[in-house]
Structure formats: structure tokens, C-alpha cells
Amino acid sequence: MSLPLPNLDVTILPSTGAASIDPYFNSSLCAAQTAARAWAAGNGPGSMVQLNASNTQRGILRDQKLAGQQRRQWDITGLEAATNYTVWLSAQDATLNNVTVWPAIKFATKTADNCRLVYDVPFCPNVAYAIPIGPQVSTDNALSTINRTVSPNLSNFTQLLGTFPCGDPYFGPYSGVKDCGDCLDAYQDWLCAVAMPRCVDALDDPNIQSAAAQNSTVLTGGPMSANTDLLPYVVNRRDGRNESRQTYVDDELSPGTYGELLPCIYTCYFVSRSCPAPLVQWSCPKWGISAQRSYGAFADSGAEGIGARENGGAGSDFSRWGGPTRYIAQDAFGNAFCNAMGVDTRLSEDNAALPALDGRRAWRASVFASVALYFLLLA
């Protein structure tokens, strides 16, 4: 049975400047809403902001316990580029005459206009982030171009998986916790992560601003240190050195120079752990040898790119994350470290870990910003 969505309200303000509120009042909905009304008055920047709400099953579509449920999402337009914002989500309960306020989410809009938000993509249902698209290319044409790669590959993999006796009670089971449906889901998420690169602003100096390997010379197969500086795994594309991993991005989407937030390596691991090994002979690159050219890791991963709560850069009792959380693909301040495609949440659930404090699990809601900007943005 589908439960009705709560009566949710969104309040948004710049995080700094005259329209912002003092951090002391960060948990005061009254202060936030009063400031937001003043910001939206007149003909100032706040008057241009529009919120468009819709429902989605992204993130819960595969969860049998939540079958038929919906999540609320917002597309926020009219935001200024290269600006930090704070969003509050609240719910009014008329019966009890009270209001619930969730922790504020911080995010920053992008500087360039070559990263465009896409979500509710039919062939990649877990995608909800910006992808590299030049201003002169329409979103529909860009998605059509990408689908020419995604659909045939997904169809071929589905046919391959169909040769395995998935439904046979005697020969079909190959795992006590995974089945062929999990295998297909994991492959689709991995395929979408590499076919639809997550776009961020290009870094001024990726050699010191990114934990990703910008060239193969640093990958020797020897021991690697943990990402104690908590840098994102970003590779600049179309910068004269690194082309996009998919030729159609450069040839048809024409984004120019952009940064790619690399997929978390667990998107690859999930295919190997979810699929029947004799049929799907899947392998992932080795950390320290070639992986950091194509994949990133959770911010709390150890020196081998795996594990959780193994990075000393998070501070005492992992105060950097706001508490003892694990599998950090994105923190509570909007900093994204790798493109997780939901594997962070699933790992938390599989291992009974506390979910990452990015607001998604706590709220069952997603808030997005458009105008070539997106909500869950690398700060």
C-alpha cells in the first residue's frame, strides 16, 4: 500500500552574504523562513528562484520493503552560479499542530554552463546529477545520443544473463543474498555511471586538488597512501591531455573542458559480487595499478580503496562527517568524492551501518538545482 507523502516545504537561502542567517540559527525554521521571505521580496536574486516538485521512486525502486512508495524531489531554478546555498526541509503536521525540521543541507552551484542536470532518465533510473552537455545541445538530443550506447549494451548483457538458469530452484541459486535481478541492476548502474559521466567544474590544478591519478606515472603498483586530505576523485576532460572516456561526449555533446567525478570503484565491485561468476567473468582494475585513472573511492576508504572508517583525515570520532558514518561518497556539506550510483546506501544497508549524512536516506527526498547546476555538487 502506498502511503501519502507528508506535507513538505522547502526553504532556501544563500549560505553567505546579506541574505544569509547566522549559523547560530541554523536549526531555527522561523529564522530561515523569515530571511527567505525577505530575500524573495522585490526584484532581487531571491525573486528569481522557482521550486518545482515531483515524485520519484529513484533509490527505493528495488527495495521490496518500500514497494509502491514515492520520494519527493525538487527542481530549483533561478539560482546564481558559483554560489553557496543552504536548504531546509520541513513538514507541517496539522493534527498534532507541530512542525518537523530536518538538518540543513549545504550545496554550491557550478561556475560553468557545460554541466546540465538530468534526472528521471528512463534508461538510467538511478542517475540524478549533472552530465557534460554543451549549451548548444538540447537535453533530449544528448540523452538520445547516450541511449544509443546504453540500450544495446544493456540488451546484450540481459541476453547473456538469460542463458543462466536464474529461475531454476535447483541450478539457479548462486548466492544466498544475490540473484539475477541484483546482477542486472548492478550492471545497469555501472553502465550508466561510465556512459553518463558526472560533470563538475574543471579543477585549476588537478594534480593537487584531486585524489585521482591524472596520468599513469603515479600508479606503480606499490603501496598508496589513504586520501587523508579528503580530495575528490576528479579528472579534467578535454583539457588537452585527457579525452572523455566515451567519444560521443566530445564529438556530439560538445561540452568543452569539464571535470569528471569518477565512479566509485564499488560500482564495479557490485557487478562481480552480484553476478554468477562462471557466466559473467567480471573483473575490476586493481587499486594502485590502474584503478585511480577510471574510478574513485569513498572518502573513508583505506589505502587500498576499500573498507570504511579507515581514513584518519576524517578527524576524531569522524567529526568531519558530523558523526560515525561509513561509506562516504558525499558528505553533509555537499562535497562529493566519487559517483556512487546508490552503492553507498546499499553497502550501509547490507552491513547495518549508519547511512551517510547526505540527507537522502533521512528525508526520503531529493532536492536538485538546475540552470546547468545541480544540487549535490562538489564544493
From TrEMBL:
A Pfam cross-reference name: Mid1
Annotated GO biological process: calcium ion import across plasma membrane
Leader sequence residues: none
Transmembrane intervals: none
Molecular function GO labels: calcium channel activity
InterPro entries, per database record: MID1/Yam8
Name by which UniProt lists this protein: Stretch-activated cation channel Mid1
Organism: Ceraceosorus bombacis
Lineage of origin: Eukaryota, Fungi, Dikarya, Basidiomycota, Ustilaginomycotina
